[in-house]
Specification:
The complex is a heterodimer of chains A (about 625) and B (about 350).
Chain A lengths: L9 E2 L1 E9 L4 H14 L4 E6 L8 E9 L10 E6 L5 H7 E10 L14 E5 L1 H8 L3 H19 L4 H11 L4 H21 L6 E2 L10 E4 H11 L4 E4 L6 H14 L11 E4 L3 H13 L4 E5 L1 H6 L1 H10 L3 E9 L5 E5 L4 H5 L9 E3 L4 H18 L2 E7 H4 L2 E4 L18 H5 L31 E3 L13 H21 L4 E3 L7 E6 L3 H13 L5 E5 L1 E2 L3 H9 L2 E6 L5 H10 L6 E5 L8 H14 L5 H6 L1
Parallel strand pairs in A: 1-8, 2-5, 5-6, 6-7, 10-11, 10-12, 12-13, 13-16, 15-16, 20-21, 20-23, 23-24
Antiparallel strand pairs in A: 2-4, 3-4, 9-17, 13-14, 15-22, 19-21
Helix pairs in contact in A: 1-4, 1-5, 3-4, 4-6, 5-6, 7-8, 7-13, 17-20
Chain B lengths: L37 H15 L7 E5 L3 H4 L9 E4 L5 H11 L4 E7 H6 L2 H10 L3 E7 L2 E2 L5 E2 L22 H8 L3 E6 L3 H13 L3 E7 L15 H7 E3 L1 E6 L14 E5 L5 E6 L9 H13 L3 E8 L6 H5 L11 H4 L2 H11 L2
Parallel strand pairs in B: 1-2, 1-3, 3-4, 4-8, 7-8, 9-13
Antiparallel strand pairs in B: 5-6, 7-13, 10-12, 11-12
The chains are: A alpha/beta (about 625), B alpha/beta (about 350).
């Protein structure tokens, strides 16, 4: 194979993909590898591409190494660690020309199984493990560590960093540490002796990571709920949201256990289904506790009736929706942003709900915690809309921050003192003109402030009423409240182009990493675009002003029906012709290459050849 | 028209309980149910039970689902917060409320459609979780609010107003509650307040999942000769296993009782249940015995009423979860938020 001439030569900027069989213990080895590169000061962005299955199906761990700090998917693959015979052909075909193929060379493979334009790196992992270990499980697990060792040599990584990480990972379990380090060494030494180390792809120590942390969005959401003061969580297991409540549970154990008697300052219920989950959240919210559930699309569908109750009876609730591919069971282990409409207008009748769009784990924490303030301030369900890409992948992000001076905003609560002083209490009365009424928590006062909460219509004093005027008063107040929400939800984030431009791009959530990179790519092509990252629904004036200020407005989304665009048209009364769809919905995270190409193509179709010139003249 | 407030007529000599409240203080809005509805008798029994137990009305939270029965919480305990949830889902909402504040008394009011049909899943799970509540099913064996359809508790062979015979097997919620782990299980009849009021009192003082199935004839759609939930049918076929008195801890227990005819059960809070036996050797602390008795009598066409089972040492959901004594909804920021220092340490561990 005479590929060496054209072999890729890249330092701190490549894509490596591990093709594994799920259930083989590869996840922790791959994680170790990613963390070692981060410790060397080089940003990485890993993504699990996994099946809805526990054992035996193909799974991939795709990792982008990027000194420039691009955390979105790049697309393509420069180094394939092909550990799964089932997907061999597809994996080999996916390599970029000049790429590298790492494989277990215990069994000879025919020449036809390879390509002429790649570099093949074989390590007889199975043979080495069989020689070294007698236990079948060990043979499997240490094979993974061994390939990490070999890659450490091939990519010229610092062996000591990997060694140190193993020590941290198995702290207190000395036997495991030495066994893992031994396997790591075997792989490392074999590669050094038998392969051309380093290959054209290299990792070199840098300082691009800074103080960033490496964590998944679901854990960050769970932590955000702890900091946000949630005391009740009710949930039903569903991919990809399950780890939100699992993380909440472990953070609660750590931070919310009474030091005196070990009692819990929280209650977590694994409910019988999603209906019960949201029912419990609403019951707790009605009774003055901060409560949340975490779910995904099918759960959102099941909860619809309850969302209507919480909206109409005005009960705070926080719902974390880790979106996956829909409709129906759809693609449970793939990512999408396709629940916007079913959440924004959830339940029958005229309803509208508050949605929050975090972009990464940092915002999952920050906006996740904030969602509890918003829910109580607005007395309504608040949806934290993440997705599988953010939720289930470790991501580099800003360190979490908390201001100890801030206090929870419990919203408009009618206190015992106010009731005792004889203050007029109408549960659904708009006292302040912002549409938000005052509420009492059950048990507040012996003789005042009690009311019958219901999903049926009522007057401002919570008395059952089918009178048209009472109904209209209430609906208009709810509309006013939703309008108030526009100024309370997280503001959009504007990234202005280097030069004045008529092109604007709107995006949200997990698209941001790819979008930032796409902006730079486009800029290099002379296409300047202002970008606006929408962080919430309802839209603030800044969002609508952005649309008004640009001639060509792209809306980049990871769904098939352009759901944010629909919300913009519907709520902002924007001419649909103005909003150009950029849609990616095959279940994989959107890439910068894809966005840049779509925008460039659309602009050239519209004959917007030189944005710069047009603005200048 | 539930928005009609009840006129407040205070009788100077109205009896007061230990808190100084009259029965009127435990009432609610005027009922809008049909005249003679069994549900109104149950509301009246609840008013009496809470009055007798000196319960502060605002310490009760009453939750319900959808249907005639679920409308009733508006008709009693007007000084309590109420929550009329969605159809069949009262148990989950009540569970959440109970988690938020363990100090209130939780009353769940439901019907046979609400609990045995659309809500049977939530009914089952709230029982098995041991949520500290009194769960009342006002069981009339018919959908009243939608005008007379069969429910899941309608007896086999029961005839509706149009003469259609029910061919589906009925669900006995009492049998289910026993199997699912409820720790206080009783059945009564809306027309028998002497039996119902003490059963309600015992349930309200019970810690854990207390379930009472109250047969409550629907005067409009299900009180005709073909119905097994009519006043006449129940009166004729009622087989009471015991008569119950509830004695509160502060009372001096002086009641004399003859061995073999009265059984004394002390609940967790010290309240004493006196079971005056009318059935043969019925032991309400034996779950298996309770199930057997229920099925044997059912085979004879009898409806067993009374306190069928009680586990006075039962534990509730809060105990299972080991939650703090202070209600979760009263924990301040300092008890909930770990603060910036903990976060800094966590950040450091994520690098």
């Amino acid at each position: 194979m005479n590929a060496m001439k054209t072999a890729l030569q890249r330092c701190n900027d490549f894509v490596i993909k591990f093709a594994n069989v799920n259930g083989s213990g590869s996840a922790s080895a791959n994680d170790l590898f990613a963390r070692a590169i981060i410790r060397m000061g080089v940003p990485v962005a890993p993504r699990n591409i996994f099946p809805s299955n526990i054992q035996g199906m193909p799974t991939w761990y795709e990792m982008r190494v990027s000194a420039a700090g691009w955390l979105g998917r790049r697309g393509g693959c420069d180094l394939m660690v092909a550990m799964n015979p089932q997907t061999w052909d597809k994996d080999v075909a996916e390599l970029e020309s000049g790429g590298y193929l790492f494989y277990d060379s215990t069994k000879q493979l025919p020449r036809s199984k390879f390509r002429d334009d790649i570099t093949v790196l074989g390590v007889p992992l199975t043979e080495m493990c069989n020689r070294e270990y007698s236990d079948a499980r060990q043979r499997q697990l240490f094979k993974n560590v061994m390939y990490v060792g070999a890659l450490t040599a091939l990519l010229a990584m610092e062996f000591a960093e990997v060694e140190k990480l193993i020590g941290e990972q198995f702290r207190g379990k000395d036997k495991l540490i030495s066994a893992n380090i031994n396997a790591l060494k075997r792989g490392y030494e074999y590669a050094r002796e038998h392969l051309p180390c380093p290959i054209g792809l290299r990792v070199e120590r840098s300082d691009q990571v800074g103080d960033r942390i490496f964590i998944d969005g679901n854990s960050a959401c769970g932590l955000g709920a702890v900091y946000g003061g949630a005391t009740v969580a009710a949930w039903y297991p569903i991919t990809p949201s399950t780890s939100v409540v699992e993380a909440f549970t472990s953070y609660c154990r750590k931070y919310r256990t009474d030091p005196d008697n070990g009692a819990c300052r929280y209650a977590i219920i694994q409910a019988e289904d999603e209906l019960a989950s949201i029912g419990m959240v609403i019951g707790a919210g009605w009774n003055g506790a901060r409560a949340f559930t975490a779910t995904s699309g099918p759960g959102i569908s099941l909860m619809q009736e309850f969302f209507g109750l919480a909206y109409f009876a005005e009960i705070p609730a926080v719902i974390v929706d880790v979106q996956r591919g829909g409709p129906s069971t759809g693609m449970p282990t793939r990512t999408q942003q396709s629940d916007l409409l079913s959440c924004a207008y959830a339940s029958h009748g005229d309803t509208k709900h508050v949605l929050i769009f975090p972009e990464d784990p940092y915002e999952c924490f920050e906006l996740g915690a904030q969602a509890f303030d918003l829910a109580e301030r607005l007395q309504t369900p608040v949806f934290v809309m993440t997705d599988l890409d953010i939720g289930m992948n470790d991501r580099l992000c800003k360190p979490f921050a908390w201001d100890d001076k801030q206090r929870y905003d419990r919203g408009k609560l009618m206190t015992y003192e106010a009731l005792e002083a004889g203050k007029d209490f109408g549960r659904y009365l708009d006292v302040d003109g912002d549409g938000i009424p005052y509420r009492t928590i059950p048990g507040t006062h012996p003789t005042r402030g009690a009311y019958f909460t219901r999903g049926t219509t009522r007057n401002a004093y919570a008395k059952y009423s089918e009178a048209g005027a009472d109904y209209v008063y209430n609906m208009e107040r709810l509309r006013r409240k939703f309008d108030t929400a526009r100024s309370l939800v997280p503001a959009p984030v504007l990234r202005a182009a280097k030069e004045p431009t008529t092109v604007g791009v709107i995006h949200y959530g997990s698209t941001s990493a790819a979008m930032e990179e796409a902006s730079v790519t486009l800029e290099a092509q002379g296409i300047h675009a202002d970008t606006l990252r929408v962080r919430a629904f309802p839209f603030s004036d800044a969002v609508l002003d952005f649309v008004a200020a640009h001639e060509h407005v792209f809306v980049v989304e990871q769904n098939e029906s352009a759901q944010l665009r629909t919300l913009l048209i519907n709520e902002g009364e924007i001419n649909p012709k103005k909003l150009i769809r950029v849609l990616h919905y095959d279940g994989t995270p959107i890439t910068a290459r894809y966005i840049a190409a779509k925008i460039a193509d659309a602009l050239s179709e519209r004959k917007v050849t030189s944005i710069r010139k047009k603005v200048a003249t | 028209m539930t928005y009609l407030a009840k006129p407040r007529l205070l009788l100077a000599d109205a009896p007061k309980n230990a808190l100084g409240y009259t029965r009127r203080d435990y009432e609610g809005a005027i009922s809008t149910l049909c005249a003679g509805c069994g549900h109104d008798s149950i509301s009246a029994a609840l008013v009496q039970a809470c009055f007798d137990l000196d319960i502060e009305p605002h310490r009760v939270a009453k939750l319900s689902g959808i249907g005639c029965s679920s409308k009733t919480p508006d008709y009693f305990l007007g000084n309590s917060h109420g929550l009329n949830t969605v159809h069949g889902r009262m148990p989950s909402v009540l569970t959440g409320a109970a988690l938020a504040n363990r100090d209130l008394i939780y009353l769940g009011v439901s019907g046979d459609g609400d609990s045995a049909s659309i809500g049977i899943g939530q009914f089952a799970h709230v029982m098995r979780r041991g949520v500290n509540m009194t769960y009342i099913v006002e069981n009339n064996g018919v959908y009243g609010l939608t005008k007379g359809q069969f429910s899941a508790t309608t007896d086999l062979g029961s005839k509706n107003k149009r003469g259609v015979i029910n061919s589906d097997s009925p669900i006995d919620l009492v049998a289910l509650a026993l199997q699912l782990g409820a720790s206080y299980v009783a059945r009564s009849f809306s027309g028998d307040k002497e039996q119902l009021i003490p059963l309600l009192k015992g349930a309200l003082r019970h810690r854990g999942a207390a379930f009472i199935d109250v047969i409550s004839p629907c005067v409009t759609f299900n009180n005709h000769p073909g119905s097994t939930k009519s006043y006449d049918y129940v009166r004729e076929h009622n087989e009471a296993v015991n008569r119950l008195d509830v004695i509160l801890p502060r009372d001096t227990i002086t009641a004399s009782y003859a061995a073999g005819t009265v059984r004394r059960v002390v609940q967790h809070d010290g309240s004493v249940l006196h079971l005056r036996k009318v059935g043969d050797d019925y032991d309400p602390t034996d779950r298996i015995e309770a199930m057997n008795h229920l099925h044997e009598r059912h085979a004879l066409g009898e409806i067993v009423t009374g306190l069928l089972y009680v586990d006075s040492s039962a534990e509730d959901l809060h105990r299972h979860l080991n939650t703090v004594e202070k209600p979760l909804n009263k924990l301040g920021d300092a008890y909930l938020c770990p603060g910036s220092k903990a976060l800094d340490a966590l950040n450091a561990s994520l690098r």
